Amino acid sequence: MDTQHLVPELALIEELPEHWKSRFEKAIYMLYKSSEQSPALAWEEIAVACAISPHHFHRVFRAAFNEAPGQYMRRLRLQTVVEKLVYSSDSITDIAVGSGFSSSQALAKALKRELNTSAKAIRKLRDSKDFDDLAEIYKKLGHPTAQSHQTIESQIAEKLETELRTYPERFLPAQKYSVPDFEKLMNAPSDGEEYEVIVTTNVEELSKHFNDITLLVGEAFTTADKANFTVSAGAFLCCKALISSDVGYHAVWDELYRRAILEGYELSDQGHTIEYLRNAPKGKQFDLEEIELQLPVEIVS
């Protein structure tokens, strides 16, 4: 089972002529990192730093990436905003300024224009048992395609390889986390060391309010005498992907659920979803994460 990458920037850079690839790879990385900073570099400054005239950079960027450089940076900032609104308790003003917006009013205008919603409405999604609205927001923040409403992340996800595997009982030394606390843990500053985390969630937990879901988190499966949690034996539909954002993460899960339905499986109500999360190999310019997802299923005769 191969690992499918869901990083639109890397896919689109590969389509550029050779003499543009290295310069636009550098430019995209600078745009990507600048979107996390406040104040951010202007895209014109980034173009000059990559030895491209701003006029030519804008023209090639729009043609290759299906949006203007400024639109790309605003979309990345809004991805950060949505993540912080959902997972943190920071004030809306602090989130706005920390994500590169001049004020909460400027953020409000961007959310209304791009997503037709508000910061308070997004934050209220944490109190919902239905994640479809949040999934729709992430789809709107995906990388646009040239001719359809589908995002590039969703298009690439359709190429995922899936595999049905049967596992015996597995034993995990695990700690309990809420979703916000786990996200805080994963987003904490690190020294860049490699990591692998296993996250398992009871399927029944997925019907709870967002903040009430309990995640069981460990580092490796082991023997029964060293564990405090058991994953039941059963069948799992599995896939692997390389992602750079929550948009890609949700696209992989959506595609895995879709494949399960198309292949005639039913979600095991008593099972546990399994996620292996690993940071990507060193040498990549983007902040990438390798994920392996295992969806517990029942084979319908």
What does this structure look like?
It is a single chain. 42% of the residues lie in helices and 21% in strands. With 301 residues, the protein is α+β, with helices and mostly antiparallel strands. The strands form 2 sheets. Strands 1, 2, 4, 5, 6, 8, 9, 10 and 11 form a 9-stranded mixed beta sheet that branches. A two-stranded antiparallel sheet has the order 3-7. The chain has 2 domains: 8-149, Orthogonal Bundle (Arc Repressor Mutant, subunit A); 156-299, Multidrug-efflux Transporter 1 Regulator Bmrr, Chain A. It is built from 12 helices and 11 strands. It has helices at 8-13, 18-34, 43-49, 54-65, 69-87, 92-98, 104-115, 119-124, 132-140, 152-157, 179-187, 246-262; strands spanning 3-5, 162-167, 170-172, 175-178, 196-202, 214-218, 229-231, 234-243, 265-267, 272-279, 289-299. The model has no long low-confidence stretch (mean pLDDT 89). GO terms for molecular function: DNA-binding transcription factor activity; sequence-specific DNA binding. Residues 25-125 form the HTH araC/xylS-type domain. This is HTH araC/xylS-type domain-containing protein. InterPro entries: Homeodomain-like_sf (IPR009057), HTH_AraC (IPR018060), SmbC-like (IPR050908). Keywords: Transcription, Transcription regulation.
